[in-house]
Specification:
single chain; alpha+beta; Butyryl-Coa Dehydrogenase, subunit A, domain 1; Butyryl-CoA Dehydrogenase, subunit A, domain 2; Butyryl-CoA Dehydrogenase, subunit A, domain 3; four-stranded antiparallel beta sheet; three-stranded mixed beta sheet; 11 helices; 15% strand; binds flavin-adenine dinucleotide
Length: 379
Amino acid sequence: MFGSAESEDLKIFRDSARRFFERECVPHVERWEREGIVDREIWNKAGAAGLLCAMIPDEYGGAGGTFAHEKVLIEEQVRAGVGGWGNAVHSGIVAPYLLRYGSEEQKKKWLPKLASGELVAAIAMTEPGTGSDLQSVKMTAKLAGNQYVINGQKTFITNGQHAGLVCVVAKTDPKEGAKGVSLIMVEANEVEGYRRGRNLEKIGHHAQDTSELFFDDVRVPTANLLGDREGLGFIQLMQQLPQERLVIAIQAVAAMERAVEITVAYTKDRKAFGKRLLDFQNTRFKLAECKTEATVARSFVEHCTELLLQNKLDVQTAAMAKWWTTQKQCEVADECLQLFGGYGYMKEYPISRMWTDSRVQKIYGGTNEIMKELIGRSL
Ligand SMILES: Cc1cc2nc3c(=O)[nH]c(=O)nc-3n(C[C@H](O)[C@H](O)[C@H](O)COP(=O)(O)OP(=O)(O)OC[C@H]3O[C@@H](n4cnc5c(N)ncnc54)[C@H](O)[C@@H]3O)c2cc1C
């Protein structure tokens, strides 16, 4: 299914991504899952292979592609079953923030390092007391001469252990709500008062270093503010979130397709009552439903990608893609796991990991309830 109407350029990129995941990631996935983190060097290897920052122009060290290249990479990562590597945040979220809102100086300073893997990026929005209600973040960034002094705590931050560049959501004006929010870049390895907390234990995505972060009088130059004045952070987040949500929807569709593919293979092989599992009408009907849902989801996500490439993907449409595809991903993973019987519950079978990994898709990037709120407001 992948790559049916793709340009030659995207086909070549897909091929190189596929080979990279097979060669550099698949042999290590089990160990990464056990260790709770990917090897730091995978970032440098991906950078050397030209796979980081695919949609960043080559003048800043990127691959000079578009969101379509990022999409290819996301699909190939899911296809290879490499759950933990947080490149979708690094290349698909933080680098585009820098490209869109960064000053020329910021872009020249950080984008080439993100593209080479010298720096790993994270985005730190969520706090222990504030997730969905983003404008209520408590982290403060107080102006002191030509510096910001940052205080507060973040949690659930993807790439939290490896990140050397963190895009932080903080209040430059704590008296204000959304208007007091700014995005500030923090060079995590250069500043004092920055501390990485626990690499959190999760029910899925074990290889992803989802972490707590602590900021205790962290001083950064005012030049690290994203945008030309304070208070633009909430607008910047709202403008970029449709793309982040589409990234999650792309992951969801690729996961559904993979689940169907491996379940079809298993049910052709496994026998019960003298027949292949696929010869039972229930198996065929369940897989027919899953395949239909994956195909319908694929079609909508392709449509959303086209809209995004034309700068026309709005908040509501992206929210529809995010909630619906992730809901279907969870349902498909569950139905497919059922067809594996007891083996589906065993960690050595990929479907079990696909089931546990699917669950968070309905939570991060804005919960599916918040997605429905966004759609509901436009009715
Ligand atoms: C593995 C993982 C990785 C993550 N990565 C990152 C990251 O890199 N960076 C980052 O900043 N964050 C990250 N997050 C955080 C994630 O975005 C938040 O968990 C999410 O936004 C929900 O916030 P919360 O956990 O505080 O839940 P809450 O906001 O407390 O919500 C709890 C429940 O209440 C519901 N709810 C809340 N408000 C409403 C409402 N208005 N109407 C109806 N229902 C409502 C929610 O839908 C949810 O069901 C990650 C989370 C996980 C689990």
